[in-house]
Every structure is written in C-alpha cells, then in structure tokens.
Design goal:
The complex is a heterodimer of chains A (224) and B (207). Chain A has 224 residues and is an all-alpha fold. Chain A has one domain. In chain A, 84% of the residues lie in helices and 0% in strands. The two termini of chain A are 27 Å apart. With 207 residues, chain B is of the alpha/beta class. Chain B has six helices and nine strands, in the order βββαββαβαααβαββ. In chain B, strand 4 and strand 5 form a beta hairpin. The chains are: A mainly alpha (224), B alpha/beta (207). At the A-B interface, helix 1, helix 4 and helix 5 of A face helix 2, strand 6 and helix 3 of B. Chain B: InterPro entries: AAA+_ATPase, ABC_transporter-like_ATP-bd, ABC_transporter-like_CS, ABC_transptr_haem_export_CcmA, P-loop_NTPase. Chain B: This is Cytochrome c biogenesis heme-transporting ATPase CcmA.
Chain lengths: 224, 207
C-alpha cells in the first residue's frame, strides 16, 4: 500500500470514529459557544466594552477549546493498542501523525471556524473584522492542533497528564494568541493586518513541517 | 504466501533492567525460517519486555537485535514483522471490515484477502458488526486475522491464546503451523502448552 493511501485511510478512520463518538465534536464547540455567551452576562451589556474585548474573548475561548480537545487525539489509540500498530507500520510515522492531526482539526477546529462569525456578530464586532477573524482562525487553529499534538504525545503515557499538558502547551500557544487577536483588533479599527497574517501563516508552515517529527518521537517514547 | 527468502532474527547479549531489577541479561538466540521461539517464565519474568524489545518499542539495556543482519530500526524489519500484543489494536467503534481495512492500509498487502482471512478465523458473516459487539475470543481472532491479510515473515505474539476456547486455540495453532510451513517464523509467549508437532520449537525459559 502506498503512503498516500495510508494517509487518507488514517484520516477516514478518524473521521468515522469521530462521527460515531459525537461528543468529541460537540464538547469543544459547546465549550466555545458557552464561554463566549457567558462573557456579556459577566461584564454587562455594554456594547463598546464588548466590542473592544471581542477579539480577545473569541481567541482565548478558541485556544481553551482547542486545549480541551487535545486529549482525545491519541488517548483511545494509546489505550487500545492502535498506536502500537501505527508505530509498527513501515510508513513514516510523522506522515501518519499528520493525517491524524488533520482529521482532529477537521473535527475540533473547523466547527469553531464555522460558528465564530455568528458569535462575533453577537459580541458586536464590526463587519470589516469578520474576514480577518476567520483568516486568523483558519491559520491559527491548525497551529494549535499541531503544537498540541507534541504535548499530548509526551503526556499520553502518564495517568494524569492534563496539568502537565497545559503547562507544556500553553506557553507555545501564546504567540498565536498575541498575533491573532492583535490582527482582529486592528482590523476592527480599519488598520492593515498583513504583517500579523503573514506571521501566522509562517507559524502554520513551520508547525506543519516541524511538529510531526517530535510528535512521532514522543509517541515512540510513550509506548515504550 | 511462500517465503523463499531466507530471513533470520538474531539477538546477542540482550539484557533488560527494570526498576533496578535485572529481568534478564546476556540473552542470545537465533530464529530462522520455519522456526518457533517460545518464551516461558513466570509473570513478571520479562517475557513481555523482551517482546517489546524485539518490536523496537523498547531499547535493550545492553546487546542488540538484528533482522537479516541489519538492526531492527531498519524499515525492512517493520515491513516483515507483525505484532499482536496484550492490547489488540482494534477500534471498538469500527466494524470488523473497517478495522481490517485500516490494518491493510498501514502495511503491505499479503496473499490472503480480507474475506478469506475472516473465513479462516471463523468470523465470516461478521463483516459489518462493530468490534465492540464481539466477544473477547472473537476480538482476539480478529486481531490475529490481521496477521493473515498483511505481508509478513515474522509474527510476534504476546499470549495469543488468552480468551480463546479450545477450538480457537487449535485454530491458531494450525495457522501458526501453516505460517511456518510457508517459511515464516514466530516468536511468542504463552502459558499454554504448544501443540505444534511439525514445527521446530525453541524454548527460552526466563527466570
């Protein structure tokens, strides 16, 4: 079997699995919507204040939702031995892992992208910023998944890895958060945001090419 | 599948230390075509650790394992070997057929088709049953069906007879004998007495 066939077989398998365990899709999305709808209740319905903090709220919620969903990336494969079989495959493990991360992003990242415009309008974000918000989410959330994969791969063998996972991963998420929410804030005031978007795109390319390697190495360590 | 190519698994001076306890040291063996290596020993004597070293999951604390003269980190080894461990590597939400398709996509195809393999392990007609609806013995047979559909010369089996009834055990022994007849080799651990009269069985007792 060819590598491309294996790559798509992994994506297909993970999508079928996600479809049969629907809570995996629903949980991060539910969390994302819930946090954002609770904010106006907490800070009070002051449109100007909400408008000012909207980019931050949306991005922080997206970041936490992404982190919440990370554990499901390798957990069940680790528990039932599928991970061992994946690592024993003659195909390069990093490519197979890229397939897994991509499927995971389709299930947990893409829904955030789809619901975000609605929530942005809900927070009173100006229309000219919506496009940029979507672009930052499109560029940023895959980076969160790819970086998160390294962290999960390192902690999947531990019984209580949740705390360590957040400590490992959160600092690495910070640059994405800074550039993404800054881009949306500036777009809302009508300033150019090409620089921030370029940096996010660079982060995505860097993560795409570099993250699968340490993830593969960490997974090999976790099963030993 | 007839395996004409001579292959060999050689271990030299292997030792494994776990939590300051020496499980085994200076262990050496050689397995070639048509041979079975049976690892025996009490619980906790290092059988599974040895198998995981042979799979490449664990580095030996000393010594090395070679496949046809090359170190087992070589990709050829992963093409030629198949492993069924304690954890069966079956997704319980996927059907029997989907599980085998994934296994096939991850390896090179063997001589046996999926349908033929399912018939061979007496799971014909279970194609669209989710794996979680299978009994423990059926799951075990499904994980062993993976060995039949993929190309492999070396089977590494960790307690393959757990959860199987008497017929299941006889079936697996027959599959093992056929695999060896065709030039394959097997390394396994088992508490069950092996009944393989036609095959050259080596035994290593880990103390």
């Amino acid at each position: 079997m060819s590598l491309t066939a294996a790559f798509f077989a992994i994506i297909r398998r993970d999508l079928i699995l996600a479809l049969r365990r629907r809570s995996e899709i629903a949980n991060p999305l539910f969390f994302f919507v819930l946090v954002i709808t609770l904010f106006p209740l907490g800070v009070g319905a002051r449109p100007q204040l909400l408008q000012a903090i909207a980019p931050g709220i949306i991005w922080v919620s997206a970041l936490l939702a992404a982190m919440l969903s990370l554990d499901s990336l390798f957990r069940s494969d680790f528990d039932d031995g599928s991970l061992e079989q994946l690592l024993l495959s003659p195909h390069p493990v990093s490519v197979l892992i890229l397939g897994k991360v991509f499927a995971h992003w389709l299930v947990t990242g893409l829904p955030l992208l789809l619901i975000a415009p609605l929530l942005a309008v809900f927070l009173g974000m100006p229309n000219q910023a919506l496009g940029v918000l979507l672009l930052t989410l499109l560029l940023g959330t895959p980076v969160l998944s790819l970086i998160g994969a390294i962290g999960v791969a390192l902690t999947v063998g531990l019984r209580r890895g949740g705390m360590i996972l957040s400590l490992l991963v959160l600092p690495l998420y910070v640059p994405v958060l800074i550039f993404a929410s800054n881009a949306v804030t500036m777009a809302a005031t009508g300033l150019p945001v090409v620089a921030q978007l370029n940096i996010l795109a660079a982060m995505l390319l860097l993560a795409l090419t570099l993250a699968p390697w340490p993830t593969a190495a960490a997974l090999k360590m976790s099963v030993s | 599948m007839s395996l004409a190519r001579p292959v060999s698994l050689v271990a030299e001076g292997l030792s494994c230390i776990r939590d300051d306890r020496v499980l085994f040291s200076d262990l050496a063996f050689q397995v070639t075509n048509r041979q079975v290596l049976l690892l025996e020993g009490r619980n906790g004597s290092g059988k599974t650790s040895l198998l995981r070293i042979l799979c490449g999951f664990r580095e030996p604390d000393a010594g090395e394992v070679r496949w046809c003269g090359e170190p087992i980190s070589d990709v050829q080894y992963r093409i030629d070997m198949a492993y069924v461990g304690h954890l069966e590597g079956i997704k319980k939400e996927l059907t029997v057929l989907e599980n085998l398709h994934v296994a096939l996509a991850l390896a090179q195809a063997g001589a046996c088709s999926i349908g033929a393999a399912l018939a061979r392990v007496q799971l014909a007609g279970f194609d669209d049953v989710p794996a979680q609806a299978l009994s423990a013995g059926q799951k075990r047979r499904l994980s062993l069906a993976r060995l039949l559909i993929t190309h492999n010369a070396l089977w590494i089996l960790d307690e393959p007879f757990t959860a199987l009834d008497r017929q299941g055990i006889a079936l697996i022994e027959q599959l093992m004998a056929e695999h060896c007849d065709q030039g394959g080799m097997i390394v396994l651990t088992s508490h069950h007495e092996l009944n393989l009269p036609t095959v050259d069985v080596q035994r290593i007792r880990l103390a």
